[in-house]
Amino acid sequence: MLILLIAVLASPDGLRRRKGKNSARAEAVNNAKQILLALLDHQERYGSFPNEKTMQKIAKEKGIAPFPLTTSNDYFRLLLAGGAASEKMGYCSFPSLPTHRPDDVISPLEQAFARGEVGFAYVANLPADSHGDTPVLVAPLIPGTFQFDPKPFDGRAVVLKMDGSTTTMTIREDNGLVSIRGGKTLFDPSAPYWNGKMPDVKYPAR
Length: 206
Hints:
single chain, alpha+beta, five-stranded antiparallel sheet, 4 helices
């Protein structure tokens, strides 16, 4: 069985699949870092990461109508309204969602970050003094769950943390969850960075 597995992985098709997944994962990590820069710029301009308060400030400043913040697409659209320049940062490969590459049509604003152009889930309403390990952005998280799809990034999840680090973490084969120290999982409310509260995860629009 082991010999067969090695033969499959070493075959041209196997190598191409692994190379493709590694490339997709690297792109997701890079785009997560671009979103981090946009989040930090938003915080500097408006006092926090995107939320209802920054929405009101931007609506007044830009003369736009406030819009609901129900999906990660909406929060990234607010980043654009606040000054971010491109929607390409929202993309990551997530075939089962599904996603496609953004067309960078950002005017009018309602057309920005359309359904399928965002693959990241966003944790909203985090306190400014949140623990550095707190997840801010993750992919590929299956909408409505805390389970990750292992297929896009070869069994790895991409996680952007509050301290600005972007890492990849192993997705468990038995349940699709990501484990952290102490036998807990990434979104377990008892993890030290959630302070016993359920995280406010905003999923990509489907």
